[in-house]
Amino acid sequence: MSLAPTSDQPLYQQLADSFAEAIHQGTLKPGKRLPAIRRVAQSHQVSVNTVLNAWQMLEDRGLIEARPQSGYYVRGVLPAVTRHGQHKTRVRDPSSSKLDLIDKVFAAQNHPDYTNISLACPQDSELFPAARIARITASLLRRDPNMIGRYALPPGSERLREEIARRALHAGQTLTADEITLTHGCMEALQLALRAVTQPGDCVGLESPTYFFLFPLLASLGLKALEIPTDPQHGLSLDALEMLLQEQRIKALIAMPSAQNPLGCGMSLENKKRLAKLVNTYHVPLIEDGLYDELQFDWPLSPAVKAFDRDGWVIYCTSFTKTVAPDFRIGWTAAGRFHDAIARLKAVSSMAESALLSETLAEFLASGGYDHHLRTLRRRYAANLDEARGLIARYFPEGTRATLPRGGFVFWVELPGGVNTTEMFDRLLQEQICVTPGALYSLSERYNHALRLSCCYPFDARYTRAIQRAGEMACELAGVPCGEAQGVPLRPQTV
Amino acid sequence: MSLAPTSDQPLYQQLADSFAEAIHQGTLKPGKRLPAIRRVAQSHQVSVNTVLNAWQMLEDRGLIEARPQSGYYVRGVLPAVTRHGQHKTRVRDPSSSKLDLIDKVFAAQNHPDYTNISLACPQDSELFPAARIARITASLLRRDPNMIGRYALPPGSERLREEIARRALHAGQTLTADEITLTHGCMEALQLALRAVTQPGDCVGLESPTYFFLFPLLASLGLKALEIPTDPQHGLSLDALEMLLQEQRIKALIAMPSAQNPLGCGMSLENKKRLAKLVNTYHVPLIEDGLYDELQFDWPLSPAVKAFDRDGWVIYCTSFTKTVAPDFRIGWTAAGRFHDAIARLKAVSSMAESALLSETLAEFLASGGYDHHLRTLRRRYAANLDEARGLIARYFPEGTRATLPRGGFVFWVELPGGVNTTEMFDRLLQEQICVTPGALYSLSERYNHALRLSCCYPFDARYTRAIQRAGEMACELAGVPCGEAQGVPLRPQTV
């Protein structure tokens, strides 16, 4: 175990991170007692309080547990997903069979009767300040019903853009309201960004695995995809990226550097700085998808790559759909040197965003309840992820690996024994349980044994039962006996 | 004067149309008494009641006036804009100077301090049922605040799509909810339609003059424009179109057949049927922009070309932004054979529309207040147009021509004496008055002497004064003495 201090993170967090990594990599095995607090303080030359804070953090993240009169112990965890050794980079057009599979899974995910354990759309209304937002909307309407009768023109609500700029400052981005374009969710921000910086036939670099809706989006714009190796823990491989940039093989790059979908991984601060430098040096725009940035578990939040964007080559895209009001679909982009082009594209593509919804969000952001709400969400998702990983450990075949997300609410599971998750998807669908097979997340077939799961659902019997059934199905397909579902005692976890 | 009866219109309307045309063409001059009602009934072989209804219609449209004890007289009107003899069809890329001018005018139009007499965005909140809509929204939020916390997924509100289908039936379109895709306003519908049916480099047929935002939209998609002669009264030239279709020179066509922007013209029922047949025969998609269809002045409304679409080659696009709730930006498309492609494009381009706003509209449509509201709007706009044309007649140079719209709230004015309206725009802007110069509505320079004006504003002293100033400026640029603005008595109108 080695501490890799960075000047931007508090000491206790660095300490917690290094122990988390040791646990995750199996250096510290489940059931093992952690060294005494005073010894750790001495050996790492930090105060006792720093160690206590670090332990608190590890406990919050479900990695260790306190046993009265005895000390701290490592909890049972899933082995980490490791980077695949082989990764052939190949420029691809999405095949129609791949796009059909995406259509099919997307349709299934939206089916109201299915139990969904993988869709990245929180369906638990407690996860949003709905009543508060509803009150603000109703109050705005009372004060000025005529708001509805005014035509929404670009660039849209100045107040919301000012609030966004104010908040972005906290996250290391120095923006003004004029640099922000409101969009119809993050999806439109990505779409406009791609249209602004590419021509049909161009090749776009993507993380691998990546958000699956990017494939039909690229296909709709006549763009080719080049998937870049992405570490399940540390994110995009910058060495591979630099090679591609040197060889001028991509015209743009889309990445989620802080809390990636589907892996949940985040890049280190150093890597973010290097990424910003790379795209500014090679003049290749980075479309930074920051959809889950405010749901990072570490505090203070790791800044966006955009924070280190020297000459405006980073197009930052995000939205309030995952944190405040999914139904409003208000997103935004800060597009640097591409601002004018994107603002113009937005106007001719869908004009502007609703003032009623924008002003509601502005009022919510201004009134100071957002940070409190975000803290609640982060705690909730971190706890949910831990519980969900616990269920996977319990019901899935031995050798199942999973990522440990740094934020958000999705994670990535890789199954042993040649299990084909597309087959698993088909069979689970007959039981009205919906998962997303790994095949969706790449144009290659390299993730056919993986699943993305999501824990933005209420942790009720239905959800638990669905995970259990998925685990049983996986055991069956892997040809190994099932776990406690059949009354067999809980398998000891290999870590 | 000749009656051109069509079996689909009531007799009194045919009669009114033929007299309107006679007035408009100058066969019946201002101040002239109309023939006695009984004589007209005899000569046209209709009942006295039919003639009375027709006169009522002409009076409503401001073309004639009743003088007690004396009969009906033709009112003073502007001469009609006639079709330009010369129209060179040329495939064009929008020049950057043209796009810059569009940007400049658009920015000026949105300036809150300017008096706008040309923007097609009703700013008079009385024109919308804002209070009613606000009550519906507030009530939905009270019943289910969690609506805000649910992720908006395609295809979006079934209830709204059902209401749209139900209403479309009245307008001759047999649609089901499943054939309708909700969009972020009509602009997004047009954008998605173009992306679904064209490839970069393709050529798209447009009316001339046409909605100016189509030029930057086409440019953003790498599409070329071919402007097709369009009669200021009867709309798109189908002979010219058929030639282009035969020669396979366009890949798609965008048109507003019922109430065109900027001319206000509408095609006859025969021409609509022929247009539908042409695009179905030549397999070239028609993107039918029906934005002002429900604001047609004639009743019953003339059906959309989509109503005669045999094999699904018509993509009907429209929105509620001009009639119910501009701020909501909810539009829709019924895309025939392109439905699946457009639904998929919508999902990857901006996902879906807000359930809160969609359900509000659905409730408003279902509750039966919409038709009443539309009747009020039609009466109001018809009266506004008449008043505005009266002001033009009063203050603009002799020889000024104007269109007589069949619906909506914009009309087209052509100035005599080589007046350059772009220069006029620049000079009026210094007085904080905003008009849209004709140069915007074509990639050619053939409308440099024209203006589009709009009467979706309150008819107050500010609006009147702005029109008067525009007229004075036009007189000055044309080198003719000003009208009554300078205390000179009102010029007699040449018709």
UniProtKB/TrEMBL annotation, chains A, B:
<keyword id="KW-0238">DNA-binding</keyword>
<keyword id="KW-0804">Transcription</keyword>
<dbReference type="GO" id="GO:0003677">
    <property type="term" value="F:DNA binding"/>
</dbReference>
<dbReference type="GO" id="GO:0003700">
    <property type="term" value="F:DNA-binding transcription factor activity"/>
</dbReference>
<protein>
    <submittedName>
        <fullName>DNA-binding transcriptional regulator, MocR family, contains an aminotransferase domain</fullName>
    </submittedName>
</protein>
<dbReference type="InterPro" id="IPR015422">
    <property type="entry name" value="PyrdxlP-dep_Trfase_small"/>
</dbReference>
<dbReference type="InterPro" id="IPR004839">
    <property type="entry name" value="Aminotransferase_I/II_large"/>
</dbReference>
<feature type="domain" description="HTH gntR-type">
    <location>
        <begin position="9"/>
        <end position="77"/>
    </location>
</feature>
<dbReference type="InterPro" id="IPR015424">
    <property type="entry name" value="PyrdxlP-dep_Trfase"/>
</dbReference>
<dbReference type="Pfam" id="PF00392">
    <property type="entry name" value="GntR"/>
</dbReference>
<dbReference type="GO" id="GO:0030170">
    <property type="term" value="F:pyridoxal phosphate binding"/>
</dbReference>
<dbReference type="InterPro" id="IPR000524">
    <property type="entry name" value="Tscrpt_reg_HTH_GntR"/>
</dbReference>
<dbReference type="GO" id="GO:0008483">
    <property type="term" value="F:transaminase activity"/>
</dbReference>
<dbReference type="InterPro" id="IPR036388">
    <property type="entry name" value="WH-like_DNA-bd_sf"/>
</dbReference>
<dbReference type="InterPro" id="IPR015421">
    <property type="entry name" value="PyrdxlP-dep_Trfase_major"/>
</dbReference>
<dbReference type="InterPro" id="IPR036390">
    <property type="entry name" value="WH_DNA-bd_sf"/>
</dbReference>
<keyword id="KW-0663">Pyridoxal phosphate</keyword>
<dbReference type="InterPro" id="IPR051446">
    <property type="entry name" value="HTH_trans_reg/aminotransferase"/>
</dbReference>
<keyword id="KW-0032">Aminotransferase</keyword>
<keyword id="KW-0808">Transferase</keyword>
<keyword id="KW-0805">Transcription regulation</keyword>
<comment type="similarity">
    <text>In the C-terminal section; belongs to the class-I pyridoxal-phosphate-dependent aminotransferase family.</text>
</comment>
<dbReference type="Pfam" id="PF00155">
    <property type="entry name" value="Aminotran_1_2"/>
</dbReference>
